[in-house]
Amino acid sequence: MLHAWTVEQIRAAESAALARTGDQELMRRAAGHVAWAVCDRLDPVTGAEAVLLVGAGNNGGDALHAGALLRRRGMAVTAVLLDPGRAHAGGLAAFRARRGRVLAVDGAGGGAVAGVLERADVVVDGIVGIGARGPLRPDAARWVDLVPAAALRVAVDVPSGLDPDTGTHAGPVFTADVTVTVGGLKPGLLLADDVAGTVLVADVGFAPKPADARVEVLTDLDVEALLPDPRTGSDKYTGGVPGIVAGSAQYPGAALLCVGGAVRVRPGMVRYAGPQAAAVVARWPEVVAGDDPSRAGQVQAWVAGPGMGTDEAALDRLRTVVDADAPVLVDADGLTLLARHPELLAARRDRPTVLTPHEREFARIFPDLDLADRLGAVRRAAALAGVTVLLKGHRTLVAEPGGTVTVNTTGSGWLATAGSGDVLSGVIGSLLAAGLSPATAAAAGAHLHGRAGERAAALRAAGAHQLWDLLRVPVQR
Ligand SMILES: NC(=O)C1=CN([C@@H]2O[C@H](COP(=O)(O)OP(=O)(O)OC[C@H]3O[C@@H](n4cnc5c(N)ncnc54)[C@H](OP(=O)(O)O)[C@@H]3O)[C@@H](O)[C@H]2O)[C@@H](O)CC1
Ligand SMILES: Nc1ncnc2c1ncn2[C@@H]1O[C@H](COP(=O)(O)OP(=O)(O)O)[C@@H](O)[C@H]1O
Ligand SMILES: [K+]
C-alpha cells in the first residue's frame, strides 16, 4: 500500500529530520533526486539548456542546488530569480560556484526571461513548494504561463499553483511532466495527475508514519492478496454469494453488465433478483435468477441500482435490500431513489454500505458539498451519511466514515463508456459478499475495474461488456 500525507504531517516529520541532519543536507539530497530525474530523461544531457524558476523559499533552494548539479553534467543552466533579494543564499552560492547564469526578473525585465524560457529544453519549477499559501501570486503566475509545452517540465516537491492537500488549483499552475516530491507523497499529487505528471518520491532520510496517513493507494499486490484462489474443499457458497438487483424493461443491458462484473471477478455463485431474470440466465447460465429479492435465498451482499428504474416496483426492491442485514451497495437509479427517500439512507447508517455515485448522482444526494474539492467532499459525505462513499471519476475516491480515503490510480479513458459503472458495481458486490469491508471492497473493485480499463485501452476494446473478459488477467511481473 502507498500512503500520502498532508503538508502539516510532512512538516512534522521533517522537523525531526532537520534537527538531526540540517537543512542544507536535506536540500542537497532533494536536489540530487531532481537532477537525476532531469538527466534520466534527457539525451544528450551535455549542452542541453535548463531554466530554473526560483522563488524565495527553500523550494527555490532545492532548484538552485539541482541547477548546480546539472552544471556539473555539462548543461547550460539559467536561474531566474523571482525575488532576487530573498533567493536561498546557500543554493545561490552553490549555483554560482558552478558558474550558473543568474537572471533577476526585476533587473533583466520580462523580455530576457521570456527569451531563455522559449529556448529551454528543461524547466525546473522551484517557485513554491509546501510553503505556498493560496493561488500563485500574479508575479509568479506570469512565468508559469510562459513555460513552453515542448520542454521537459520538472516540478520540485509540488507543481507551483497546485494545493498539495486537495489537488485543486484555483489559478495558473505549473503543469509538470515529472514531480520530484520530497519525503513522502501528498494527496494533491495523486488527485491531479494531469498537473503533477509522473510522481517520484525523493527519499531524503525521513518519512512520515504510514499509520498516520489518511490517504492511501492500493497496489496490485495488495489487491491480489485480498482475493485468494479457491482452496481444496471450497464449495460454491464458501466465498459468499452476491445478490444483484439491476435492470428493467427500459435498461435490460444494465442487469447483464452488473451480473457479468460479479460473475467474472471470482468463482462461486451469483444471484439475480429483478425483471430481467430470463435475459440474465440466457447470457449467464450459471446465475440463479428470480424477480423478487425477498425470495432470493441466502445472499451475503446486495447490489441495487444499475438500470433498475425509479418506479414503485424499483422502490419496493430497494426497500427489501436496505432492510436486509447483509452489506449493501447502492448505485445509479438506486441512488436517485435514496435522494428522494433519505430515510432509506439513514436506515443504513453505521451498517456495511457502499454508495457509488458519479458526480451528478453525488450532487443529488449531498447537494451541500462542494465538488471543487473532491477529496474533502467525499470525506464529508461518508461522515455525514455514516456509510462508505465511492466517488467515480478519472481518479475514483473511496471514503470511509472514519476519514480515510483511498485514491484509485488505475484506469483509462476507455472506462468512460455507457455501462462501465454497472460492471464496477457487480465487481464490488462480489467482493463485499466475499467478506471484505465496504471500503476495502470498493477500493479493490475500483482497482480491478481500472486495470481492466487499461487493458481495454491497450486493445482498443470499446464497449463496457468487453471489461468482463479483462477483469482478472494475471498481473505480469
Ligand atoms: N520536506 C522536507 O523535508 C524538505 C523540504 N524542502 C523544500 O522546502 C520547501 C518548503 O520550503 P519553504 O517552507 O521555504 O516554503 P516554499 O514552498 O519555498 O514557499 C515559500 C515562499 O513562497 C512564497 N509564497 C507563498 N505563497 C505564495 C503564493 N501563493 N504565490 C507566490 N509565492 C508564494 C513565500 O513568499 P512570502 O509569503 O514569504 O513573501 C516564500 O517566499 C519544500 O516544498 C521543499 O521543496 C527541502 O529543501 C528539504 C527537505
Ligand atoms: N476519464 C476517465 N478515466 C478513468 N475512468 C473513468 C473515466 N470516466 C469514467 N471513468 C470510470 O468509468 C465508470 C463510469 O461509471 P458511470 O458513470 O456510473 O457509468 P454508467 O452509469 O454508464 O455505467 C466509473 O468507474 C468511472 O470512474
Ligand atoms: K515547485
Automatic annotation (TrEMBL):
Pfam family, one: Carb_kinase
Swiss-Prot/TrEMBL keywords: ATP-binding, Isomerase, Lyase, Metal-binding, Multifunctional enzyme, NAD, NADP, Nucleotide-binding, Potassium
This protein's record includes keyword Lyase: yes
Stretches assigned to the YjeF C-terminal domain: 219-477
Binding residues for (6S)-NADPHX: 58-62, 129-135, 157, 254, 307, 358, 422
PANTHER family: ATP-DEPENDENT (S)-NAD(P)H-HYDRATE DEHYDRATASE, ATP-DEPENDENT (S)-NAD(P)H-HYDRATE DEHYDRATASE FAMILY MEMBER
Family the entry assigns: Belongs to the NnrE/AIBP family.
Descriptive protein name: Bifunctional NAD(P)H-hydrate repair enzyme
Organism: Nakamurella endophytica
Gene name as annotated: nnr
